[in-house]
């Protein structure tokens, strides 16, 4: 069943100077942080094993092309130095993958591990997003990083491959994580070209992106969020939103509405 809400856990480290608390600053400025895979805390997150083509595979592609295309293909991918050309293409693909921007969310608001790992042991807060506005797609968990055949991308480059299917395969590979992270129940929202006009700050590994306040359904306080933090956010938030409270039950976290 499709989820109606996505959640983003946000840390708060101290309540003495909120000008140094980026999660609070971003919330009050209607912006979120989209990250590249270089900014992820997991070394293997979105890592893809790119399988190099063989000389035979490249020769078969060359044979399918008309003269002008065949000459272009040989200049880029084939010839006596085909291995070095493939390595150059591989580095280009890795660079493209490195530059994709994602906003990572989850479908769980009551995960003790998530509150502990991403909201500074319950001292932070959690943003509840309207899933109708945040079109995030589910992350796949598996025992090994995914494989991707460069030959499929080369075929699309010369116009004989299926762009749509290759694009789907790339997107699936880039939202794949190892099994040990399955507790996160993560979803991933990829920035489109149309969204780039919403970027307010671009850095090599991340971007700050504007959003519409009505995309937020509630702010959930952690079990240890201080009254000072709550007051600062409530006093400075320029839009109306529901507030909820995470509470410690016997062996679990429960979420209740509050004022």
Distinctive features:
259 residues, alpha+beta, five-stranded mixed sheet, three-stranded antiparallel sheet, 8 helices, 31% helix
Draw up the topology in text:
Blueprint: E1 5-10, H1 22-28, E2 31-35, E3 49-51, H2 55-63, H3 67-76, H4 82-99, E4 102-106, H5 112-118, E5 125-130, E6 137-138, E7 140-142, E8 147-149, H6 150-157, H7 163-173, E9 176-178, E10 186-190, E11 199-202, E12 206-210, E13 216-221, H8 227-236, E14 242-248, E15 253-258
Parallel strand pairs: 3-8, 7-9, 13-14
Antiparallel strand pairs: 1-5, 2-12, 4-10, 5-13, 6-10, 11-12, 14-15
How many domains make up the 3D coordinates?
A: 2
Mean pLDDT: 94
Largest sheet: 5 strands, mixed
Question: In terms of quaternary structure, what is this?
Answer: single chain
Our Rg estimate from Cα atoms comes to: 22 Å
> What letter string, H or E per element, gives the SSE order?
EHEEHHHEHEEEEHHEEEEEHEE
CA-based shape: elongated
- Which parts are unreliable, with pLDDT below 50 for 5 consecutive residues or more? none
Give the helix level as a range of percent.
Answer: 25-40%
Sequence of strands across the biggest β-sheet: 1-5-13-14-15
What is the number of strand segments?
15
Distance between the termini: 30 Å
The number of helical elements comes to: 8
| Class per helix and strand makeup | alpha+beta
User: Proportion of β residues?
Assistant: 25-35%
How would you describe the overall organization of this protein?
This protein is α+β, with helices and mostly antiparallel strands and 259 residues long. The protein folds into two domains: 1-35 and 107-139 and 183-259; 37-99 and 140-174, no CATH class. The protein contains eight helices and 15 strands. A five-stranded mixed beta sheet has the order 1-5-13-14-15, with helices on one face. The longest helix is centred in the middle third of the chain and has 18 residues, at 82-99. It starts with a strand and ends with a strand.
